[in-house]
Amino acid sequence: MEYYLGITQTIGVHTLLGLSAYVLLLTGQLSLAQVGFFAIGSYVSGILTVIFGWHILPALLVGALVAGFFAFLVGFPALRVKGLMLVVATIAFSEIVRLVFFNVNWRVEVNGLEVGPDSTQGFREIRYFAANGWEQAHVVLLIWLIVILVMVLLWWLDKVRAGAVLRAVGEDELAAQSSGVNLTMVKVAAMTGGGVIAGIAGGLFAHSTTYVDHHTFSILLATFAVSYPILGGLKNVLGTLMAVIFIQGFIIEGLRFMGDYRNILFGLLIIVAMNFRPQGLVDGNFTSDLRKLLRMNQKRGGIDA
Amino acid sequence: MLKLTNLAKYFGGVRAVDGLDMQINKGEIFGLIGPNGSGKSTTVNLICGVFPQTAGTIELDNVDLGRLAPHQRIEFGVSRTFQNIRLFGDLTVWQNLWVAWRDAPGHETSWLVNWFGSPADRRHEIQKLLEFSGLGDRADRPASSLSFGEQRRLELARAMASKPKLILLDEPAAGMNSEEVADLRNRILTMKNLGMTVLLVEHVMDLVMSVTDRITVLNFGKPIAEGTPLEIQNNEMVQEAYFGSAKNVEAGN
Ligand SMILES: Nc1ncnc2c1ncn2[C@@H]1O[C@H](COP(=O)(O)OP(=O)(O)OP(=O)(O)O)[C@@H](O)[C@H]1O
Ligand SMILES: [Mg+2]
Fold first, then answer.
1. pLDDT at position A282, please?
2. From the CA of B37, which ligand is nearest?
3. How much distance in Å is there from the Cα of B40 to the middle of ligand 2?
4. CA-CA distance, A221 to A23, in Å (whole number)?
5. Residues A170-217: tens digit of each pLDDT
6. N or C: fewer beta carbons within 10 Å in chain A?
7. SS3 assignment, position B36
8. Which pLDDT score is estimated for B152?
């Protein structure tokens, strides 16, 4: 049971990370800065609950906002670079954030215990949940409530004009500009929104695993984040969720016996997806295929449609 | 209305536009013609702010557009189409217009509705523009699924969606058959009747000569002639620039 809850937890956090990259991909920005925002969210919210004794919800919120603020700042220089250069620049950002936290040492005594970020040792004992009597199922519930909230929000965004504008920018910046779209505003807003979502993910991750260190915030994690919406397609948010379930649930967990070869498989999968299904492996067609499949099953079950 | 003064754009050593003076009056259909590579598209791009000019000024109703970002110029009432159609192909026809939509001056909705309004808030008005463009039954199709002629019409509609005072058409007839060109001519005349000013860049001479009020001819980025269609047709320098006659160029494109 605990094992499955653990996977569910991971899938939830990774879905948020994937969605944060999804928002940026809509505007055509391929960013590996999401792990940097994730790191900021985890340290800030962790510090707030551990050192300042805050409740988890305001701590997550402030962590997300601080991450969003940094994303806002990153958004402006990011406007000037595209494609591969943006990838490189955002990797650099994530690495800087990682190295900064590598050096944060802020140890205080709380209830006779020394706690807080311990530079190279990472940030351990982020024990808000255990200390406040949360069971793992409650934690999973909290994570998934937030995942659903974010998914519903993004789903709604796609139905209003702002969503169409985001996609227009992703398709053709020049045409969007010439149609009156303020590119700066839209791209910075997307970066900020993505930063907020990654920040929440970071806060949830830090508290559910109780520790983070600089290994946590690897470029591999950033690669995972962008690969979910790439594999899942940009048709809607469900694609990203499907991709996370597939990669985390099946490739990483299901094929555990393959060890590090899973990463090769993961890489191959992305290459295949980019070459043969640029719109994603599980895109809108997937949902309609699924619907057809369900209808078929209904018929088999004897219900006449 | 639009006044270009000594406008220039150099790309490295290439003088794409080189000292262009041009004035378009309100309500005019103004033709800009010239051989391939003479700087017509570059002029359109300069007016829209795709890149900054090397020298000179661009004024619209005495407002200096020169330093404004492209989207700000749209707020002042300039919009355009592209020589090579640039639609949002994965968006629906309807969404293409929704993105570009601006309420008519004096009828603006709130910022909130503008960004976070649902299609229902604009359904009626945008549908009207679609009907006008002969795309009434195409609203929910992806723009990329339209035929070439339909895509041209959609791009025109998208340029109109921002309620421009001045609309810049960069070779809107390219690739069209004679029937489609006739339809385009009617649309351009309708735009004029609706009070828009039109800058028409075009190689299809029948269209240019029959629809414009005045024409400027560019060659190597410099204006070599200006006048009514009749004056331009009889201008020797123009005929020379086109290597013989205008008809050849038309056939070549
Ligand atoms: N972005 C650019 N970078 C470099 N050179 C450019 C650029 N845009 C245009 N040019 C050059 O400027 C010159 C004028 O090009 P422009 O596209 O304005 O011509 P045009 O009159 O529109 O021609 P056509 O009839 O073929 O459309 C050409 O020599 C072209 O190669
Ligand atoms: Mg051109």
1. 57
2. 1
3. 5
4. 17
5. 999 999 999 999 999 999 999 999 999 999 999 999 999 999 988 899
6. C
7. coil
8. 96
Looking from the CA of residue B201, the nearest atom of ligand 1 is 22
* Residue B236: both structure tokens together: 């020797």
Q: Which residue has the tokens 């017509």?
A: B40
* Chain A nearest C-alpha distance from B143 (Å): 12
Interchain contact A79–B (C-beta under 8 A) = no
Question: Which residues in chain B are classed under CATH 3.40.50.300?
Answer: 1-77+164-253
**pLDDT value of position A302:** 36
* Tokens, residue B242: 């086109």
- Structure confidence by residue, pLDDT tens digits, B209-222: 999 999 999 999 99
Using an 8 Å Cβ cutoff, are A19 and A237 in contact?
yes
Interface residue A61 vs chain B (CB under 8 A): no
Which spans in chain A are helix H? Answer: 2-26, 34-50, 56-79, 83-102, 128-131, 136-159, 161-171, 173-178, 183-209, 219-232, 237-244, 261-276, 284-300
Which atom of ligand 1 sits closest to the CA of residue B253?
A: 25
Yes or no, beta carbons of A178 and B116 under 8 Å apart: no
ipTM above 0.95, yes or no: no
Q: Inter-chain contact B91–A164, Cβ cutoff 8 Å? A: yes
Dihedral of alpha carbons B197, B203, B204, B205, sign = positive
From ligand 2's centre to the CA of B169, what distance in Å? 10
Out of A16-30, A78-92, A200-214, B163-177, which region has the weakest mean confidence (pLDDT)?
Answer: A78-92
User: What span, in angstroms and rounded, lies between the C-alpha atoms of A164 and A155?
Assistant: 12
Chain centroid to Cα B50, Å, comes to: 14
Considering the segment(s) B1-77+164-253 as one domain, its CATH architecture is 3-Layer(aba) Sandwich (3.40)
Q: How far apart are CA B154 and CA B175, in angstroms?
A: 15
Tell me which residue in A161, A176, A182 faces B116 most closely, judged by beta carbons: A161
d(CA A294, CA A198): 34
From B40, B46, B84, B202, give the residue whose CB has the most ligand 1 atoms within 8 Å, as the site to mutate: B40
Q: Give the residue carrying structure tokens 């003088």.
A: B15
* Nearest protein CA to atom 30 of ligand 1, as residue: B37
How many angstroms does the Cα of residue B38 sit away from the middle of ligand 2?
8
Residue listed under structure tokens 């605990």: A2
The residues with which B168 forms a beta bridge, in sequence order, are B80, B199
Point out the ligand nearest to the CA of residue B40: 1
Question: What residue ranges do the domains of chain A occupy?
Answer: 2-218
Query: Tokens for A206?
Result: 């830090």
